[in-house]
Write a structure and sequence with these properties.
This protein is α+β, with helices and mostly antiparallel strands and 114 residues long. It has one domain: 60s Ribosomal Protein L30, Chain: A, CATH 3.30.1330. It contains five helices and four strands. The termini are far apart.
Length: 114
């Protein structure tokens, strides 16, 4: 994952954490998925297969988009924790903003010429 993209993602996740618009950790995300409150699931690139198996089928069943994020340490630091394997975004607008950022990729980071 591009470092500029990672920084922008971390900024959005940090805002979400301060606004209590997300849940973190495999079990908390799993519970939120079951309750239908997750709009977007972000899984760290180094998440254990066992944890992925707990989350991905549930996200698919609930029609929740899944993105692969940076490693667990970077993902955790973005939200003020040591390391986090998964983050569930519960706010629709924040989820939309993160999806748009990730889909646009590095092209969205290039400065515009006026």
């Amino acid at each position: 994952m591009d470092t500029h993209l990672t920084r922008r993602l971390a900024g959005l996740l940090g805002l979400g954490a301060r606004g209590r618009l997300l849940v973190a950790g495999v079990e908390m995300v799993r519970d939120a998925l079951r309750n239908g409150t997750v709009e977007l699931l972000i899984v760290a690139e180094d998440t254990a297969e066992n944890s992925r198996e707990k989350l991905l089928p549930l996200a698919t069943a609930k029609h929740v988009a899944v993105l692969e994020g940076p490693n667990a340490v970077t993902l955790g630091r973005a939200i003020g924790k040591e390391q986090v394997a998964a983050v569930g975004v519960t706010d629709r607008r924040l989820a939309k903003g993160i999806r748009e950022l990730m889909e646009s990729g590095p092209a969205a980071l290039a400065p515009t010429v006026q």
